[in-house]
Design goal:
Layout (H helix, E strand, L loop, with lengths): L2 E6 L17 E7 L4 E2 L3 E3 L2 E5 L5 E8 L5 E7 L2 E2 L13 E3 L4 E4 L1 E3 L4 E9 L4 H4 L8 E8 L15 H5 L3 H11 L11 E10 L2 E6 L8 E8 L1 H7 L23
């Protein structure tokens, strides 16, 4: 079965995995556009967390680490970032060619535009404003491998010696057979995510047949404010040095 998907038109990164990225088959990172940096990932009780700053726009950076096409079905706050449906990994997503990466900057509004992601209060999040407040605070990427193309065997006609020696006969048969072979192209309150300003972001449709019904990998990155992550124990609060009345035993000489 072919699944209609959306493919990014621009390769944005390649090579080694990005700092602050999570994942194996694909690298996923959260980039704060206002601060101009990839957000640090904290691990706590088997989950990954980043600190979001209210009001700041952000983007999700995804890079295919494999040598074949993959499909990335992406959700923010339990909502599919392309279709706006309550997220399910059987839905549409972005196709990445081998070692290709791209930045998803917002909710897809058309083939030409997106509405920017930005950190905001839970009740102002797009999910909450559309009646789906229960999964606010998490970014998800479900990664599928592409079903391998079947091998193509070309059977040539057995030609008699006389036909092989005839001028142009062998070349004509070979050209005909080759032309029929398919060509493969490479291809504080808790935080939520708001529905921000409109931006240009052009993509095209493509088809993608999944190798499996279930994703090869599911990557989740949770986010919240710094104070909330400290209160949860995800981040250790910095120790403040406080004066003590008896720091030593005897009176030292002055300097």
């Amino acid at each position: 079965m072919n699944w209609k998907t959306i493919t990014s038109a621009i390769v944005l990164c390649s090579g080694a995995g990005a700092a602050g990225a999570v994942g194996n088959l694909a690298d996923v990172a959260v980039y704060d556009r206002a601060q101009g940096r990839t957000l640090k990932v904290y691990q706590y009780e088997g989950r990954h967390y980043v600190v979001g700053k209210p009001g700041n726009e952000y983007q999700i950076r995804v890079r295919n680490r494999s040598g074949a096409d993959v499909l990335a079905v992406m959700s923010v706050d339990g909502v599919n970032v392309v279709s706006g449906e309550t997220a399910n990994w059987s839905q549409t997503g972005y196709v990445l060619g081998r070692y290709q990466g791209f930045d998803v900057k917002g909710w897809r509004k058309s083939m030409e535009r997106t509405a920017a992601f930005f950190f905001t209060e839970h009740e102002n999040s797009y999910a909450a404003r559309t009646g789906r407040p229960n999964h606010v605070g998490v970014i998800g990427v479900a990664v599928f491998r592409k079903k391998p193309e079947p091998e193509v065997f070309i059977q040539r006609d057995r030609l008699s010696d006389s036909r092989r020696e005839a001028p142009g006969a062998g070349n004509g048969a070979g050209a005909s057979a080759e032309s029929g072979a398919p060509q493969t192209a490479e291809k504080s309150t808790s935080l939520g995510t708001g529905h921000g300003r409109s931006e240009a972001s052009r993509v095209t449709y493509t088809s993608f047949e999944r190798a499996t019904r279930h994703p090869e990998e599911v990557i989740a990155i949770h986010y919240d404010t710094y104070s909330n992550l400290v209160a949860m124990g995800v981040i250790r609060a910095p120790q403040i040095a406080r004066p003590t009345p008896f720091p030593g035993q005897f009176v030292p000489d002055p300097r």
